[in-house]
């Protein structure tokens, strides 16, 4: 059996959160659940230095029929962990890293890097932290107190102007700001962009996503900031406790998985220790 869950979690456990069941939004053609059909999980290095996932003696493949390969050992171990911790039933909706790998490998929308970057930058025009309300006063104050520091951080970090607005059209983002972010995102490889786009869609925010990737924000903080208005309404009117907990734990899990995917897919070196043992 795969025996490196503890070692892996000790290295990357700060990025892993409780996973709650919901079907993945990114590419996956697999059924939501399936009876487990293997006993052992291992990784091996194949052609071109790429790493493969083995279920017993069978090589894992993508929904599109391609050989499932990842660019480095760290990501391979993370994916193998997802498969190894499954019990009698495979719950594919909890396997976010595997799904993101499938998206990168099969590229079902057939987009290139420039198209992915353009899609990500469109979120700047509707960014969560840029849309403000005029009332009630309590929410206005909360948005100013919680969102302004993050907005100021990213403007200083990238030397850009973003701003905020209570206008339904949102703030007008300068072309120079878009160009700066476009150049920055070009430094990401295709796999990392896949993960970053996933984080942006979860948080509905380029600002919060980059804050997390740059480690200015933690997972829980970024998720809370993305749900600020909802949390304010809950504070005022109460909530259905189990539904609130379900939603927030799920969003944390998906956001953490996306950020971890960016980190691991950017890893250039392999893990030095022999972590896969019989």
TrEMBL record:
Keyword rRNA-binding: no
Source taxon at top rank: Eukaryota
SUPFAM superfamilies: ATP12-like (SSF160909)
Chief localisation class: mitochondrion
BP-aspect Gene Ontology terms: mitochondrial proton-transporting ATP synthase complex assembly
Keywords of this entry: Chaperone, Membrane, Mitochondrion, Mitochondrion inner membrane, Transit peptide
InterPro entries, alphabetized: ATP12_ATP_synth-F1-assembly, ATP12_ATP_synth-F1-assembly_N, ATP12_ortho_dom_sf
GO cellular component: mitochondrial inner membrane
Family: Belongs to the ATP12 family.
PANTHER family reported for this sequence: ATP SYNTHASE MITOCHONDRIAL F1 COMPLEX ASSEMBLY FACTOR 2 (PTHR21013:SF10), ATP SYNTHASE MITOCHONDRIAL F1 COMPLEX ASSEMBLY FACTOR 2/ATP12 PROTEIN, MITOCHONDRIAL PRECURSOR (PTHR21013)
The name this protein goes by in its record: ATP synthase mitochondrial F1 complex assembly factor 2
Lineage summary: Eukaryota, Metazoa, Chordata, Craniata, Vertebrata
